[in-house]
Amino acid sequence: MKNKLCSSIAAGLISTSAYAAERLPTIPPDQYTTEQQKAAEEFLATRKVPVFGPFEPLMHSPQVMSQARAMGDYLRYNSAIGNTLSELAILITAREWTQDFEWYVHYPIALKMGIKPEIANAIADGTRPVGMTTDEEIVYDFSTELHKNKRVSDATFARTEKRFGKKGVVDLTGINAYYSLLAMQLNVAQYQAPKESKKLVRFPE
């Protein structure tokens, strides 16, 4: 279900005007180098849609784009914590980086996957959500500590390992890191979300 939903959202993004800014503008396919063409073909074969979103600025380094896409293939769709909780971690990451496009793409996916709107909206507001499940609390605490403290406490680590195992700890760390990478690329590129999308509040530095 999630692959179909993501493909639908990606197709919608592709059908609209380009969102790239001047820093790392979207490269027209007819201007691809041989390496870029190969990377784009692999992306299409794997994701079933043309290159879109954060992968557009990444196409200026097709090797990085392909490696990032491959990591995302696992972390987004097959991680040890499951797709619903991965979307929660992605929203936390998008909020941490104030990444409007990442939020625009993943907010509806998170709701479809079962994250309650009030939980997602609290994250957007920068407040701790109430009414989370035990698993959501674990993912929220782990992800928030990792982003804000640049490390995770012994208690939070132990709780996460007990629930998801060492593989789950590594995968959850990877999800936060991977979507930080995409958010950083989007922020550096000044890649714009659609005008009608929700804009995350810019918190004081």
TrEMBL record:
The lineage of its organism: Bacteria, Pseudomonadati, Pseudomonadota, Betaproteobacteria, Burkholderiales. The keyword rRNA processing does not apply. Coiled coil: none annotated. This is Carboxymuconolactone decarboxylase family protein. InterPro entries: AhpD-like. Keywords: Signal. Residues 1-20 form the signal peptide. It comes from the Bacteria.
